[in-house]
Design a protein that fits this description.
49% of the residues lie in helices and 22% in strands. It is an alpha+beta fold. Among the domains are: 49 residues, no CATH class; 141 residues, Tetrahydropterin Synthase, Chain A (2-Layer Sandwich). Strand 8 and strand 9 form a beta hairpin. Helix 4 packs across helix 6.
Length: 376
């Protein structure tokens, strides 16, 4: 009786506990097999068991009917960094968000190789164009590895072929970044390399940094030549371009940036030598300017001393002339005074003499009156 009484209790426990759990698990599995949730910023490629394919880009739950749902991010990023930075960021999440890979090696004109750190962001199309991408590449990883990454590598190398490393480090960094974004979006320029001979007596220009694989040229060579790279033009004078393959699917380039260019060690050593030479040249130029300023200072000091002596001599001359003129005027005044005194004394003497002669003269008798005659 005890055994028979225990079996119904276990069956009843399974009935009231296990059955709901099985039903819940079956319902959960059925729900996950029929529905899926599409996150914001994602578009999901759905393939049902009925052979239907569709694109779901609205946020929320949608049906997949026990098929496969592959999420794609609407904007994919591809970033290249140096090996050291890649080792630091090796735990980054790249699942359908983009890719972080090792920096691309490029070769500038003149065979100067370098590694480029870049970042590019692409916006995927919607509708039938996105469905075509999903059918062609099946998942975002394949699309990034087989379509975007090779396009970025090819574009970087094509951009590097337009200029030399000297030009890049001499101030063409922004031009390099602009050409990279331009060619990544609108297509690669077709370029050609041709030899240009200089005029007779022309000597090839020498850059401060000699690039690997280039000739230094012989000074005095009357037939000096150099190679230049030019864009291929069509009959209308418009550059011929090679279209990017991903652009055929309606993929847009949101942004493209060049964050760093790391040249080879030999070029860095040459750059250090050039910087030292430029520093020495700047110091020599400053010393020359200093010597010229000191020369001007000495000249100015000499002119100042000469002018001071001239002014002092002129002052002495003026003082002596003034003193002589003063003495002359004083002498004239004294002479005039003496002359006046002599005149006064002469006049005084004459007066005294006249007075004395008048005093010594006898008095005159009165005149005798004449008789008057009678009139006839």
């Amino acid at each position: 009786m005890e055994i028979s009484s225990g079996v119904p209790s276990k069956l009843s426990l399974f009935k009231y506990v296990g059955t709901p759990l099985l039903v819940a698990a079956a319902g959960f599995a059925t729900f996950n097999g029929v529905f899926f949730y599409n996150e914001a910023g994602f578009a999901t490629h759905v393939r049902t068991i009925f052979g239907e394919e569709k694109i779901v880009d609205d946020v929320g739950y949608a049906t997949k009917w026990f098929g496969r749902a592959t999420p794609w991010k609407k904007a994919l990023s591809v970033q290249s960094v140096l090996t050291e930075a890649l080792e630091i960021n090796d735990n980054s999440d790249n699942d359908s968000l983009g890719a972080t890979i090792e920096a691309f090696p490029i070769v500038f004109l003149g065979n100067v190789d370098a590694k480029v750190e870049s970042s590019a962001r692409f916006r995927l199309p919607s509708g039938d164009q996105f469905l075509k991408i999903a059918q062609e590449y099946r998942n975002p990883e394949n699309f990034i590895k087989t379509a975007l990454v090779p396009a970025i590598k090819e574009t970087l190398q094509a951009t590097a072929s337009l200029m030399s490393a000297d030009d890049f480090y001499a101030g063409a960094r922004s031009e390099f970044a602009a050409e990279f974004e331009n060619q990544l979006n609108d297509g690669l320029y077709l370029i050609k390399r041709r030899e240009v001979r200089g005029p007779r007596g022309h000597q090839p220009s020498q850059t401060a940094i000699l690039q690997a694989g280039t000739e230094q040229g012989s000074f005095g060579d009357n037939n000096a030549s150099q190679f230049v790279t030019e864009k291929v033009m069509d009959n209308k004078g418009i550059p011929v371009r090679k279209q990017q393959q991903f652009r055929k699917y309606g993929v847009e380039v949101v942004e493209a940036r060049i964050t760093n260019v790391d040249p080879n060690p030999q070029y860095k050593q040459r750059m250090v030598k050039v910087q030292q030479a430029l520093a020495e040249l700047a110091v020599a130029r400053q010393n020359r300017l200093k010597e010229e300023e000191e020369k001007l200072l000495v000249t100015a000091r000499g002119e100042k001393e000469v002018e001071a002596r001239r002014q002092e001599t002129l002052r002495d001359q003026i003082e002596r002339t003034t003193q002589a003129e003063t003495e002359k005027q004083l002498a004239i005044i004294n002479a005039e005074r003496e002359k006046g005194r002599a005149e006064i004394e002469k006049q005084t003497a004459e007066l005294l003499r006249d007075k004395a002669s008048i005093t010594a003269r006898p008095p005159r008798s009165p005149p005798t009156p004449k008789p008057m005659r009678a009139r006839p």
